[in-house]
Amino acid sequence: VKKKDGSETAHAMMTCNLTHNTKHAVRSLIQRFPVTNKERTELLPKTERGNVFAVEAENREMSKTSGRLNNGIPQIPVKRGESEFDSFRQSLPVFEKQEEIVKIIKENKVVLIVGETGSGKTTQIPQFLLDDCFKNGIPCRIFCT
Known about the structure:
With 145 residues, the chain is mostly helical. Helix content is 48%, strand content 0%. It has 6 helices and no strands.
């Protein structure tokens, strides 16, 4: 985790202390917009979700256009060809941390990456992961929002 003051730190577990006002706001939101059964199911560990959830999700995915995701099934990515943007990619601040970022993502379930706008977080990190999965023959699927 890179802090705003430039220092870096790594923690196995991070806590988040909420103020009384924030807790009240969260409670109000949950009362106004209660968690649905689907959302509850999605929050369960994979082993507790059961086959019903998997079948429902697969059916929903099959009815959507999925581009190259092949209905969300992890695949080994194809090799990325050379591009006119390669030199630009290499100039982005995130590029020099590529190996470190990929290693940290592999080792942790949740990774928070903070950086300036335009540093390459959104566009380059998924590409780093695709390149690494191609290089190592590892199937993957990446969703960006």
